[in-house]
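Hello Y.,

Per our agreement to keep a running log of every chain we model this quarter, I'm adding this entry. I've kept the format consistent with earlier entries: sequence first, then predicted structure.
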Amino acid sequence: MNTSLKAALGLVACIALAVSPALRAQEGKTEILWLGQSAFRIKTPGGKVIVTDPWLINNPTTPKEYKDLDALGKVDLVLVSHAHADHFEDAPALVNKTKAKMVAPAGLQSQVISLNLIPAELSYRLNKGSVAMPIGGNIKIWQVHAEHDSELTYVDPETKKRSTYFGGEPVGYIIELENGFKIYFMGDTGVFGDLRLIGETHKPDLLMVPVGGHFVLDPRQAAMVTDWIKPKYAIPMHYGTNPVMTGTAAQYIEAMKDSPTKVYPMKQGEKIEF
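Predicted structure for the entry above:
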């Protein structure tokens, strides 16, 4: 092959990579920022931004700079696991500010529209067992079961009356990114047998697992279900915000000492890449 032809082929390859986000996404990394409790900002290999369970402004463990929702930058998708304030409280403000789509349990999705908290066009309907691509880019989202409850407490801004509404059935999320990397965001859950089936079905690379106890899995239970699910990596979450949640990341790591899963005990405000 002569020098001119080699140069021409090299130029074609460079142009193809430059104009193809899909090709770039295959080679990119996933950035995870922990904001405290169950709130994460996930930057995907293709440049999309997903935020889970946004409770930031009143979260005692969220770093000060992220209590300003503008600090999150652009957001494409908000995933809410259930209606409790420590998972949903800042979702309406974040969605209305960024015009991101929100995926939530079906009953909660209906309530936020009825209460005029989020425009219907931004409240994306999904249900457990189904898969969708609400932001395109070959990013797939599944809702899966979580063993918890879900009530939406709402204070009318005009009457100041406090009311409680059905918040749908709580869920977890399987998030498959452009390069095939799978995250299982468990939301709030206790132990249930089908966690094994979720692991066998989806084979997640990264597990985001609650460890605080009382309302959710405690460290020993979290280690047990991690062993059932068999991810490559795990990030402990949902601890340290409430005195009754006595479980810690250190206790989870100790319970995981014989596991092949690599645990990343993040600090609030810390970023890691996969």
